Amino acid sequence: MIVVTTSEVHGRRIDKVLGLVRGNTIRGRHVGHDFRAILRNMAGGEIKEYTKMMAEAREQAIDRMVDEAHALGADAIVSMRFQTCEVMKGAAEMMCYGTAVTFHPAE
């Protein structure tokens, strides 16, 4: 599955727009990670525990979006975007969304 942030895929012509597809996950902080993050924050630098958690959340959201696009019979997802928001103290939603499309058959 091709996933791009642009509105088109170079060298391909969109045949049909199948509609909006999305994937999301909600992640909460972990007490053990919070303790290490507080210590790391005092010293300065990257908080690796949160970096890893957000990377995993992005990948899970993308996987869910791609599954939804596959179910529609899409060849690609164009105009993909990420969005995040806090749903409660200590928990955030990671969402990605885009437009599922099919391409013209190769000529």
Automatic annotation (TrEMBL):
Which Pfam families does the entry link to? YbjQ_1
**SUPFAM superfamilies in the cross-refs:** YbjQ-like
Top-level taxon: Bacteria
Q: Which InterPro entries match?
A: UPF0145_dom_sf (IPR035439), UPF0145_YbjQ-like (IPR002765)
State the family it belongs to: Belongs to the UPF0145 family.
Q: By what name is this protein known?
A: UPF0145 protein WI372_01715
The top of its lineage is:
Bacteria, Pseudomonadati, Gemmatimonadota, Longimicrobiia, Gaopeijiales
